[in-house]
Write a structure and sequence with these properties.
The complex is a heterodimer of chains A (197) and B (370). By secondary structure, chain A is an all-alpha fold. Chain A contains 9 helices and no strands. By secondary structure, chain B is mainly α. Classes of the chains: A mainly alpha (197), B mainly alpha (370).
Chain lengths: 197, 370
């Protein structure tokens, strides 16, 4: 809990600094207001996912392991693919901040990729799906291969002109079924994580 | 002009009245009845003695000391104790002068806040900001022997001067703010931003020689460093004192500090509700408010000052007065006054009022609210 709060605080300040810089660039005409607003929306969406996933992890851990174990993220995650955390003296919130910022930057690249051939709404739906991809939720946690989402988003951005985002992420009932399915898978993954994968 | 003066008197009367009502209720809570003698005892005991108040009185009375137990009071900036000393004329009780000075500065700060908020959002925004500021949960410190009121007056005065394009006044007031608290230096950010962004933006604001006055702001801090050097041969002696007892200060990244605050909230029973949780909650509220301000296109100078102020404050590695420090982050009141929803504004004001009376009464009863 302490690590999540600390990481949220640190990232909050970093994003605030970025948004203030963007505001300055808008004021002097170097950046468009719409671009800044879009960046703000992407950061907000990433923040919501980070919050949601961390809240889910804490809730699952609380139910599965009890409140005491929830206090230390190192204790909570120190097994399986996160076992390396027990061998480092660096606080977990440092790694969490890095991962949150990686996910935020990945989100920006993704959004830019989908916005090429789609409108604002379809780009944001694409972003939702990116964050909901099976296993993607793990990258909001301190993983040693945390740069993978950045790679994926980078590839999407590189091939953005071939992605028909407008058609792919059209709003219909199928989209909501997809969201629900992916959320369910996410919760399963998190549960596996907490109970020792 | 008459109307403006009338408004100023009304603002002063309102802020003083709210605090006096709180003092009367406090007197009832502490002594069981309200008499003049009890009021004087309460004010003397609780507004002039706890925490930093005694240290300001020591500096005002005897000046900075080169050695001895009082040498560490060098960590406190000189303007407030200097004003107390000057206004006492060597005869009047320093504590009484300190409280009167705080009250007058509080009224001035409230007027500046009203003007700032009114300029951006009209009279209603002005009154809302003043009310919210007055019932901020830790605003009891604005009427005691503390620097909060003076610093608020100077920092808001500097921002108002920047807003009104009176850059020479902004520089001089900012200089005085930097001599009152270390955060005064941060006024350089909005001042420089105003000059640079104004000249590069569509407005094409012309840079004039008066803009150079903003460079006086860091000079205030340099004067304080010069005092350190003249006493101890080290301009950064205050940092050495801050690292030691009783402050144990350090500079660490915000994430580290908020994590520590959380652990302290779990381990220091009794202090979690009055120190640690308020500090954690205020941080997230402040950052959220600044994001909201960016969305609502609140003036960049205010948001920039708010951002650097919050960041600077929460870099402190062993913070126990965060609630008091955040009171001086006045852009938050300006952002709050720009909220559209009257229900949310009302709820925020009501909530703040509840906590104001709760923490003020706890402070008056002797709880460790710092």
């Amino acid at each position: 809990m302490a690590d999540i709060l600390g990481a949220a605080a640190g990232c909050g300040m970093m994003v605030l600094i970025m948004m203030l810089i963007f505001s300055f660039l808008v004021q002097i005409g170097v950046m468009k207001k719409e671009t800044m607003a879009a960046a703000g929306r992407v950061f907000g969406r990433c923040g919501l996912f980070a919050l949601g996933i961390d809240a889910a992890i804490l809730l699952i851990a609380w139910v599965a392991l009890g409140w005491e174990d929830v206090q230390s993220m190192k204790g909570l995650l120190c097994h399986g693919m996160f076992g390396w955390l027990s061998e480092t003296a660096v606080p977990v919130h440092t790694f969490l901040q890095v991962q949150y910022m990686v996910m935020a930057l990945s989100g920006l690249l993704c959004y830019a990729a989908f916005r090429k051939n789609g409108d604002e709404k379809s780009a944001m739906r694409g972003l939702n799906l990116f964050y909901l991809l099976p296993g993607m939720g793990i990258f909001f946690l301190p993983v040693s291969v945390g740069f993978i989402p950045l790679l994926i988003a980078g590839v999407l951005f590189a091939f953005s002109k071939y992605i028909p985002a407008g058609k792919l992420f059209e709003k219909d009932s199928g989209m909501y079924i997809l969201y629900t399915g992916l959320l369910f898978m996410l919760v399963l993954v998190l549960y596996k994580l907490v109970s020792g994968v | 002009m008459k109307r403006k003066l009338c408004t100023c008197f009304m603002i002063a009367a309102l802020v003083w009245l709210i605090h006096d009502v709180m003092l009367i209720i406090g007197c009832q809570a502490v002594y069981g009845n309200v008499t003049l003698e009890n009021m004087q005892l309460l004010i003397r005991e609780r507004l002039t003695m706890p925490g930093d108040a005694q240290r300001y009185l020591q500096i005002a009375g005897e000046g900075y000391q080169k050695e001895g137990a009082d040498a560490i009071n060098l960590v406190f900036f000189p303007l407030y104790p200097l004003l107390m000393r000057l206004l006492s004329f060597g005869v009047v009780d320093l504590a009484a002068v300190g409280m009167v000075l705080s009250r007058l500065c509080l009224a001035g700060a409230a007027v500046c806040l009203y003007e700032l908020a009114k300029t951006e959002g009209g009279e209603q925004a002005g009154w809302y900001s003043v009310l919210l500021f007055t019932v901020y949960p830790f605003s009891v410190f604005t009427i005691g022997v503390y620097t909060e009121s003076l610093f608020l007056l100077l920092s808001m005065g500097c921002m108002l001067a920047i807003r009104k394009e009176k850059m020479a006044a902004a520089g001089i007031i900012g200089f005085l703010a930097a001599l009152t608290r270390v955060q005064g230096m941060l006024l350089l950010f909005p001042a420089v931003y105003h000059v640079i962004a104004g000249s590069l933006s569509k407005e094409k604001r012309k840079i004039s020689w008066r803009d150079a006055f903003v460079l006086l702001i860091p000079v205030g801090f340099m004067v304080y460093l010069a005092i350190n050097h003249s006493l101890h041969g080290n301009p950064f002696q205050f940092l050495i004192y801050e690292e030691g007892e009783p402050w144990y200060q350090s500079t660490r990244w915000i994430a580290e500090n908020i994590s520590t605050q959380y652990y302290n909230a779990l381990n220091f029973k009794g202090l979690e509700k009055i120190i640690y949780w308020p500090q954690i909650i205020l941080y997230f509220l402040a950052v959220s408010a600044l994001f909201y301000g960016i969305k609502k296109e609140v003036r960049m100078e205010y948001l920039l000052y708010g951002g650097v102020y919050v960041g600077f404050t929460y870099l402190s590695g062993w913070m126990i007065s965060g609630g008091r420090y955040m009171m001086c982050c006045f852009p938050l009141y300006l952002v709050a006054s720009r909220m559209k929803s009257e229900k949310v504004k009302g709820a925020l004001l009501a909530g703040s009022c509840v906590f104001y009376f709760m923490y003020s009464l706890m402070f008056l009863q002797g709880y460790s609210i710092m």
